[in-house]
Amino acid sequence: MRTSRSSFRARLAAFLTSAATTGVLLAAGAPAAHAADTPLRDLAAAKGKVIGTAVTGSKLTGTYGDTAGREFNALTPGNAMKWGSVEPARGTFDWAEADRIVDFAEAHGQQVRGHTLVWHSQNPGWLTNGTWTSAQLSRLLNDHIATEVGRYKGRLAAWDVVNEPFNEDGTYRETLWYNGLGADYIAQALTAARAADPSAKLYINDYNVEGVGAKSTALYNLVKSLKERGVPIDGVGLQAHLILGQVPSTLQQNIQRFADLGVDVAITELDIRMQLPATEAKLAQQAAEYKAVMNACLAVSRCVGVTVWGFTDSDSWIPDTFPGQGAATPYDENYAPKPAYHAIAEALGGTTTPPPTGACTATYSVTGQWDNGFTGQVRISCSGASLTSWKASWTFGAGQRISQAWNASCTQSGAAVSCSNASYNGSVPDGGSVTFGFNASWSGSNPVPTVTLG
Ligand code: G3I
């Protein structure tokens, strides 16, 4: 975790530089650079689970590539395997980005989840603008699946064969495929995919199907009927594009009911978005919610694992689609792991301590000044952290001398001042503050010192 440590140090140094000029210094509860000792993929592997991420193929170098390779044991191409990407003009194929991702995954011992074969979105214009008979559509569907699945035969762990087939109320979404072929386009696609690669697990993938509800029940009924008919279906993908504060309480129950049907379950596109700016409190809540999703999957043996939809906020679809929202992934835009990252690690059995999410600060101010004397005040405030005792220290830079203090016990030796809490005000709760004051002499100038908490 060399990258996160050095970027943390850079941020801390920048903070200290700016804090010193204002006479405020973060000290007690200062974040330490606790990076996880064990990559997520090793923790997940020890539990027999997938921890994956969606990736953009062109970015798989540098820090992005290092992190994707080090932390995850599965990759999903975010866009590279969609029909519009691989066959932008009819009969003209571009596999470059998809190949790059599959090659990268194989070089890093990672699974690949193919995404996605049959969808209503990101299809090429020639397909969506065409006029097709049912027979033509059926042929297009079969040929597309045979070509794409066949190209990666034996190399992919799973395919999202059909993506987002349902409306919110559980009726079928009226797409090119549904309108042209009826609901059985789903069975047809699954059958074609099995024929093209018998070793890949075949999934139906959708969003807003994480909790028990009309849409997930429609998916449940579909899978049940496909299994009864002998149509190849191995799993369901719960995308899990979640909103902070809205993780469904029935997530584990829902995963379990699919498992009980005899299919695998994968969390395929997890992110948890929030209204920006991200605050420490929101990031802490997000971490708890990431952990809850991990735990729901870990609790059900047929839940194969969790894939995040982009691992860094710099590569997330959220800000483009939901203006004003973001910070949805486990790493920030500079590849520093967020509390959510540590929460995933903890859920997977990691033993590292996440960095404290808050701090206590001391603010020095001169509240009154006269000829050769002044009154000073120091306020100690905590946010996201707390103290049970404190000591505030500083160095007077222009010969000032303390004569008297209250609400603290102060000593001065040369220019060095040290003030400890009184018996009654050592405790500073999260969100609270205490103050102490003093009288002192000055002459010439009375510059504000930097206070250190310890
Ligand atoms: O590649 C072009 C680029 O050349 C152009 O300059 C730019 C201008 O907008 O667009 C780029 O394409 C964008 C593409 O992502 C690649 O970045 C598209 O506009 C944009 O619409 C597309 O968004 C993707 C979205 O699916 C489309 O619905 C997201 O990246 C992708 O993360 C997202 O993924 C979907 C899953 O496949 C299914 N579940 C929902 C999930 C989120 O929408």
Question: What does the model show?
Answer:
This protein has 2 domains: 33-347, TIM Barrel, CATH 3.20.20.80; 359-453, Immunoglobulin-like, CATH 2.60.40. It has 14 helices and 19 strands. It has helices at residues 2-22, 40-46, 62-71, 83-86, 96-107, 125-128, 134-151, 176-181, 185-196, 214-229, 251-261, 280-298, 318-321, 339-347, and strands at residues 24-26, 50-55, 74-77, 111-118, 158-163, 201-206, 235-238, 241-243, 264-275, 303-308, 325-326, 359-370, 373-383, 391-395, 401-406, 408-413, 416-421, 433-441, 452-453. The protein has an 8-stranded parallel beta barrel, surrounded by 6 helices. Helix 10 packs parallel to helix 11, helix 11 packs parallel to helix 12 (280-298) and helix 12 (280-298) runs parallel beside helix 14 (339-347). The model is unreliable at 1-36 (pLDDT under 50). Residues 78-79, 121-122, 163, 207, 239, 269, 317 line the site of ligand G3I.
Approximately how much beta-strand content do the residues carry? Answer: 25-35%
CATH superfamily caption of the largest domain: Glycosidases
The overall number of domains is 2
Count the E strands: 19
- Mean of pLDDT: 91
Measured as a percent range, the helix fraction is 25-40%
- Termini, distance in Å? 28 Å
What composes the largest sheet?
8 strands, parallel, barrel
* Widest beta sheet: strand line-up: 2-3-4-5-6-7-9-10
Please write the CATH class name of the largest domain: Alpha Beta
Structural shape: elongated
In CATH, the topology of the largest domain is named TIM Barrel
* Chemical compounds bound to the protein: ligand G3I
Low-confidence stretches: 1-36
| Quaternary | single chain
